[in-house]
Design brief:
The protein is an alpha+beta fold. β6 and β7 form a beta hairpin. It is globular. The structure holds cobalamin (B12) and iron/sulfur cluster (2 copies). One iron/sulfur cluster binds next to α10 and α11.
Length: about 425
């Protein structure tokens, strides 16, 4: 009883600390931004809020100007007649540090990620954009955020004094998975917690991570960016937070440690490791069942569980030949080739282009909505086709190799009189 009361107080404190204080203290910024947007003018973000951390000499600066080299083509099924323009109603007079630099684009050594956005830290190099994003929320978005924050109050808490022994981790894994699915998630898996999944600022110290996906509405994503889609996203986040809090509470009630891992944690690598999907060119995860139309949530725990395995469903092969997200992203933030990021080659999204567009429009998600895998019922067939094509290509390459070896042997026999090297 006392534990629950403490959690409820934490929820109220969270709402008043972040949301309410923020809403009331940024009236001027909100008003001036809206007026600039109406008049087609620009506000200077340096005139608002705390100073941005100054970059040191030699560090690359952010360039928010959209990439104009890519040719745009809007997907025929997008609901919006036209995407909002990439002319922003704000500018930053003092150039800030590049988000790509912060997150290790081009770095060849592995290291944990650093917090980049949705940090609520306004002295962060991208803090001015964070400030604007939070300040311009509409009343509807603000209420949705309060409801969401209320749901996070049970993310952590005290565990039961008596611990339920776990003799069969496989059976316990099945029990936890069934519990998570019952709460409304569409998929769930378990991964070991690795350095890829934690941020430098907020390390988590648990052996396992339970990761789950909650279906998102593609119709709303096809309407993004819009206030309606922003509200739907908040509601979907709220549902995800509710499941994470309930699973963490369920485990703590069994006397084991558990904490919902939402912001201090890299959701995508955990979900990849657990076999929920693969990273797409648009920087989000793709699964066979839901394409990219799902939100991720996670719970870190020391409850003994059995880990899953990553699965190759053919996303890389598909993305290598597809351009849909690239041509539909208004600021052209999506790279067509894999990049070296913190010691790994993978698909990557340019922060300096995506984030300003995201901020100006109260969110975005065009890239996941237009992705062909997100069309209901297509993923399974795409996956089977890509894997079959790959087998066919491998067989053709092996046959070519055999022909080459045979003809070389034949040549040697005829010309050199021997097939020996
Ligand atoms: C900050 C953030 C943003 C920022 C920055 C985007 C970005 N590319 O990182 C902004 C505000 C722009 C943004 C936008 C969107 N986001 Co966002 N975002 C996050 C958040 C909170 C943290 C990600 C982060 O810190 N990135 C910074 C560094 C680490 O980026 P990075 O090195 O490029 O790594 C990215 C991926 O490569 C992958 N990753 C990181 N490390 C590794 C390691 C390996 C081995 C692999 C394979 C992948 C991988 O994760 C990163 C996120 O894309 C996560 C939630 C979370 N806690 O993980 C959601 C999250 C990634 N976003 C999500 C979504 C859906 C979106 C949007 C579609 C908006 C929307 N409608 O909700 C857009 C899509 C933008 C895009 N093309 O990526 C979902 C993705 C779900 C999915 N199906 O994959 C997440 C997981 C939120 C959630 N709880 O569901 N987001
Ligand atoms: S739209 Fe095409 S290229 Fe982009 S992630 Fe989806 S399948 Fe890959
Ligand atoms: S969310 Fe996707 S479509 Fe929108 S700007 Fe970012 S990368 Fe482009």
């Amino acid at each position: 009883m006392l534990v629950r009361l403490k959690q409820d107080l934490r929820g109220l404190r969270q709402i008043s600390k972040t949301t309410w204080r923020h809403w009331t203290s940024n009236r001027r910024l909100r008003k001036e931004f809206r007026s600039a947007q109406r008049k087609g003018e620009r506000i200077v973000l340096d005139d608002f809020g705390p100073p941005v951390m100054a970059p040191e000499a030699g560090q690359p600066l952010a360039d928010f100007s959209p990439n104009t080299e890519v040719k745009s083509r809007k997907a025929h099924f997008m609901t919006l007649d036209e995407y909002p323009s990439v002319d922003y109603s704000f500018e930053i007079r003092n150039p800030t540090l590049s988000g790509n630099y912060i997150n290790g684009l081009g770095e060849t050594e592995p290291r944990p990620a650093r917090e980049i956005f949705h940090t609520w830290k306004f002295d962060h190099p991208l803090g001015k954009l964070e400030l604007l994003f939070q300040a311009i929320r509409t009343p509807g978005e603000w209420i949705a955020l309060c409801k969401r924050q209320w749901n996070t109050r049970r993310f952590t808490g005290e565990k039961a004094a008596v611990q339920v022994p776990v003799d069969d981790p496989a059976a316990m894994t099945e029990q936890i998975k069934a519990f998570t699915l019952d709460l409304g998630s569409a998929m769930v898996g378990v991964a070991p917690l690795t350095d890829d999944m934690v941020t430098e600022e907020l390390p988590l110290d648990y052996p396992y991570i339970i990761t789950f996906g909650v279906a998102m509405s593609r119709d709303e994503a096809l309407e993004a960016p819009s206030e309606r889609s922003a509200l739907t996203i908040q509601a979907e986040y709220r549902g995800t937070d509710r499941i994470a809090a309930a699973v963490a509470q369920h485990i703590r009630d069994m006397g084991w440690d558990a904490q919902a891992a939402i912001h201090n944690f890299m959701q995508i690598p955990a979900a990849v490791e657990a076999g929920l999907g693969q990273l797409g060119k648009h920087g989000s995860l793709i699964s066979k069942d839901l394409g990219s139309m799902f939100r991720l949530g996670a719970v870190a725990t020391n409850l003994p569980l059995v880990i899953g395995q990553s699965e190759d469903i053919g996303v890389d092969d598909f993305c290598a030949r597809c351009q849909v997200c690239i041509t539909n992203c208004p600021p052209h933030a999506i790279f067509d080739t894999k990049q070296m990021v913190r010691g790994r080659e993978r698909w990557y999204v340019d922060f300096d282009m995506c984030i300003p567009y995201f901020v100006e429009n109260h969110g975005c998600g065009i890239c996941i909505g237009v992705c062909p895998w997100s069309e209901p019922g297509r993923g399974e067939a795409f996956s089977l086709k890509q894997l079959a094509l790959r087998t066919k290509r491998a067989e053709a390459a092996a046959a070519d190799e055999a022909v080459h070896v045979n003809s070389t042997d034949e040549f040697r026999r005829r010309v050199l009189g021997s097939a020996e090297t």
